[in-house]
Specification:
- This is SDR family oxidoreductase.
- GO terms for molecular function: oxidoreductase activity.
- The chain is an alpha/beta fold.
- Helix content is 44%, strand content 18%.
- The chain has 7 helices and 10 strands.
- It has an 8-stranded mixed β-sheet with strand order 3-2-1-4-5-6-9-10, with helices on both faces. It has a two-stranded parallel sheet with strand order 7-8.
- Helix 5 links the parallel strand 5 and strand 6.
- Helix 3 packs parallel to helix 4.
- It is globular.
- The termini are far apart.
Length: 241
Amino acid sequence: MTVVLVTGGANGIGAAVARHFAAEGAKVVLADLDEAAGQEVAAEVGGRFVRTDVTRAEDNEAAVATAVREYGGLDVVHLNAGTGGAGGLDDFDLDRYRRTLAVNVDGTMFGLRAAVPALRAHGGGAIVVTASLAGIAPATFDPVYSASKHAIIGLVRSLAPACADSGITLNAVCPGFVETRMIGGLKDTLVANGLAVASPEEIAAAVATIAAGQGTGEAWALQAGTAPQRVEFPAVELSQV
């Protein structure tokens, strides 16, 4: 039996990932702030819901503990919770800036710190973090969001070797525009401007493929109607002082 934990699992990509793994026979724990939607998806997939603020280390630990207590261990973790909309230089919002970095960057780090010991105790496993194409290329429409997603990819690539020592793969999925609450009602406008908009189900399938693979420390770009493409980074290593 595969046990899967999904943060940001109540809606959008996270809910699609929960449904995808449950359809394959996995037991799923959903972690989210949205209790009503989270409970609904958990009931649909026969899983468990844990109210979780990913900006709190103890909430991440509680979500992992639920998976271990209810299902005996943990095999796959999808750190998906994310937010944006902090603006740029002219429309900067300090509270939104701090919230974006807290959810996207702190939430990833706290999730990793909570999940790795449980995966290690269960003999290894896979972690997939939701980054974004905005973490690979500039995103002038939301610079702070872009910065946070660049940071997530940096964490994935830098922490993967340490995770590999415990039999844990750590990778990032980097979607373009996805039909979720984050783009609101902009889908028609985006499509009219020639931009591809993926379904959450496409991203879920990619997450499952990445989790099942043997690679680690990789970022996978994904746009509507295309297979995931591994991002090639310059082969540069920082020397230790």
